[in-house]
Amino acid sequence: MRIHSLTLDNVRGIEHLELRELPDTGVIVIHGDNEQGKSTIMDALNVVLNQKHSAGNRHTKPLKPVHRDASPSVSLTATLGPVTFTIEKTWFRGKSARLTITAPQRESYTGDQAEAKLEELKERHLDAALLTTLFLRQDELGASVDAVGIPTLTRALDGAAGTDGESGTEDSGLLAAVDAEYRRYYTATGRDTGEFAQAKAELDAASTELAEATSLAAELDTFVTRFDRVTADRQRAEADLPEALTEAEELAGRARAAAEAAEKAARLHEDLARADEAVTHARGAVDQRRQLVDAVSLATADLTRRREGLEAATAAAEQEKTQLTSLGDQLAAARERQRSATEGLRAARATQRQAQDITRRDALAGQLAEVAELNEQIRTVRETQAGRQITDADVRAVEQATAEVTLQRRLREQAAAKLQLTATASTMITVNGEPVSVDGESTAVELADGTEITIGDVTARYVAGYAESTRGTDPVADAEKSLADLLADLDCADIDAVRAARDLARDADEKLATLTRQRSTLLGGSDPEALAAEHDRLVAELATADSVDLDPTAAAAAVRAAEEEQDTASAEASRIDAALTPWRDRTAALALTELNTRIEAAEATLATAEKSLAAAEEKVGAAELAAGVEKAQAARDAVAERVTLADAEVAEANPELARNLHDGAVARVESLRAAMTRAENQLAELTGRIDMATGAAERLEKAEAAHEAARHRCDSVTRRAEAARLLRETLHRHRDAARARYAQPFADQLSRLARTVFGHDVEFGLSEDLQVTRRSIGDATVPLEDLSGGAKEQLAILTRFAIAGLVSQDTGDGRVPVPVVVDDALGSTDPSRLQLMATLFTEMGKTSQVIVLTCVPQRYDRVVGRTEYPIDELKSAGRLI
C-alpha cells in the first residue's frame, strides 16, 4: 500500500489538516509540538481503513472534535496492489462513506457498498497483520513482534528458505480443524477435558464404588473373625482373676514390713548427723581458742618492729623542714625581683605604645589629607557630569538623523520641479527671502507650493496644482524637524557640537575612574570613616600625654632590656622553684606521721587481742574444751553402731523390690479387669457392625458390572483422544520444522541492519514465533526485557525495517506493500546511535515509504533526502512540500 494524501476535518483537536502528494519512497517527517495532532494522523489512518462509517465504538468515539459540535471526517487516497482509490468517511451526525477508484479503471461506490468494496480490496491486496506491525506506535517501542503471525512475511521467509508452495498460511484450516478436535479431549495446556475427562471420571467413580463394595465385603469377614477372638480373650481373663487377687494381697504384707525397716533406719541416720554436728562444734571451739592465742603473739611482734624505725624517721623529718625553710626564702627573693622586672617591662611597653601612636596619628593625618584632596577633585568632576551626558548612542542617533535629512534633500532634488535661471551679467535675486547669485551658468531653484522668487521689482510666487498640493507631508521637513528635535533635546547646535559634548563626557568618565582608582589605592581597602575615627581617638588620647622627645627606637630598646631582665628573673625563680618541688611533697614528715599512726594502731590491736583471750579463758578453760571434744566423739561412735545394724535389716528386707512386686500384682489385677470390660464393649460393637454389613455381597456384584461397562467406554474415548493428540503433534512438529527453516533468513536480515547500530558481532535470539527474546554483543547476552529504553526503541524500529525489507523482496517489484509509520521514536537514543539510525532511515527510504511523526525533527536532520511537513502548515494550508 502506498499513501498519496490524507485529509482530516473536525478530528479531535484538528479542525482541518491536508497532507497531499506524498512521495512514493523516502522518509517523510511530519513534525510539531506535543498535542498538535501527530498521533491523531495515525489513528485517523487506522479508523478510515478499518472502521465503518456507521460505527460508534471505542475506536471512532475518540475522533469527536474538542469544543466543537461537528462530525469527524477523514479522506485517504492510496494504492493497494494495482488499485488506486480514495475513501472518504464521516461518522456520527451526517455519517457517510464514499469510495472512488481511479485505477486501473474508474469506479464509484457509496454507503455500505463502499464499505464492502473496501473490505474486498483489503482482503485481496492488504495483509492486515503487516499493516498493524509496520504502524509503530509510541507505546509499542519496547514490545517484541510476533513475526509468524504475518502471512506476507512468512510467505517471503518461505521463499528465502527455498520452500515450495504457499506456506505463508501454514494450512491454517487443517490446523484449526485438528485443534478443534483436540480441544474436545484436552485443554490448551494438555489437561483432560470434555467427554475424555467425563469418561475418565465415570471410570474413576465406578472403580471407587467397586473398591468400596470389595472393602465392605472384606470387612464383614473381618468382623466375624474378631468376634470369636474377643470372646476367647474375655473367658481367659475371667479365669485368671482369682489367682491374681491372692498374689496381690500377699505381696502387700511384705511391702509394709520392708517400709517399716527403712523408716527406722532413716531415723537413726538423722541421729548420726546430729552427733557429727556436735563433734564438729566442739573441735571448732578448740580451733577458735588457738586463733586468739596466735593473734596476741602476732600483735606483739608487729608493735616491736614498728617502734624500731621511729628514731630514724624523726631525724629525716627535721632535715626536710630545714631545707624547705631555706629554699622558700630564696624563692621569695627571686619572685620579688621577677615582679620588679615585670613592672619595668610594663612601663617600657607603655612608652613604646605612646611613641607608636604618635607616629600613627601623624601618618593618618597625611593620608586623610590626601583622601580629602582626591574627594574634592572627584566632586568637581561629578559636578561637571551633573547635566545630560551625551553618549555614543546619542551621536549615532544625530548622525542617522543628519544622514536622513541629506537623503531626503537629495531625493527631493531629484523629484521636485525646478526653475532654471541664467543671466548675461551676474545678478542678485532672492528665493524665499534668501539672496541667490545668478550668472551665465544655469542656477536651479526648487519649486514648492508657496516658493517666492524676487528679481528686481518683480516677485513671483509659485502655487502648486491640486494633485501636487495634496501629496501629504514633506519628507525633507519631517527629517529636518526630527534632526532639530534631537539637537534641541541634547542642547547642541549641530553634529560637531554633539560629538564634542560626547568626547567631553568621555574625558570626565576617564578622569573620574582615574581619581577613584587613586583613592582606592591610597585607602588600601580601609574605610575612610574608620581611619578618621582612629585619627580622632589618637589625637584625644595623646592630648594629655607627655610626649616630649619620645624616640620610638629608644623606646623599643628599653622594652628589649626590660624583657631580658624579666626573662633572667623568671629563669632564676623557675630554677629555685624546681629545686623546691621535691621537698614540697614533705615525704619524711608524711612517713613519720604514717609510722606514728601505725604504732598506735598496733598498740590498739594488741590490747584488743589480749582482752579477747582473757575473756575466753575466763568463760571456758582449755582443759574443758578438750574434754568436750572427747565426750562428743564417744556419743557419735555409739549412734554409728546402731545405724550399721539398721542398714543391714533394710538390705535384708529390700523395700524397693517389695514395693515393685506389689505394684506389679496390682497392675495385673487391673489389667485383667480392663480386658474383661474392653472385651464386653468390643463384642457389642462387632454385633452392630455385623448387622450393618448385611447386603455387602449384592452391592459387590453390582459394582463389578458397572466398572466393566465404564472401562469399555473409557477405552473407546481414549483411543479417539490419543489419535487426535498424535495428529495434532505431528502437524505442529511439521509446522515448527517449516518455521525453523525460515527463522534464519529473518535473523540474518535483522542482524544485517542491527550491525550498523550495535556493531558487527551482534546476534539475536528468536522464539518459535520469531519474537526477539535476547540480544548478544560478543560474549555479553542481555534479555529483551533488561535492555535500556533506547536499545528497545532502536530494536523495535530495526525489527520493522527487517520485516519491510523481506516483504519488499517478496513483491518482486522492489516496493513495500505497506509503508512504515513511526510515531515519535528515538527519544531515548543517545547522539552517537542517533547518527547511525539516520543512516538506516536513509537506506530504508530509498525503496520504501517511511512516515515519521515527531515533535523533535532535529533527530532526523542526518536523514538524506527526507521531506518535512510542519503540522501547523498542514492545518492552515493545503499542499505542502
Automatic annotation (TrEMBL):
<keyword id="KW-0175">Coiled coil</keyword>
<feature type="coiled-coil region">
    <location>
        <begin position="592"/>
        <end position="626"/>
    </location>
</feature>
<feature type="coiled-coil region">
    <location>
        <begin position="196"/>
        <end position="337"/>
    </location>
</feature>
<protein>
    <submittedName>
        <fullName>AAA family ATPase</fullName>
    </submittedName>
</protein>
<dbReference type="InterPro" id="IPR038729">
    <property type="entry name" value="Rad50/SbcC_AAA"/>
</dbReference>
<feature type="domain" description="Rad50/SbcC-type AAA">
    <location>
        <begin position="5"/>
        <end position="61"/>
    </location>
</feature>
<feature type="coiled-coil region">
    <location>
        <begin position="662"/>
        <end position="720"/>
    </location>
</feature>
<dbReference type="Pfam" id="PF13476">
    <property type="entry name" value="AAA_23"/>
</dbReference>
<feature type="compositionally biased region" description="Low complexity">
    <location>
        <begin position="347"/>
        <end position="357"/>
    </location>
</feature>
<feature type="region of interest" description="Disordered">
    <location>
        <begin position="337"/>
        <end position="358"/>
    </location>
</feature>
<dbReference type="InterPro" id="IPR027417">
    <property type="entry name" value="P-loop_NTPase"/>
</dbReference>
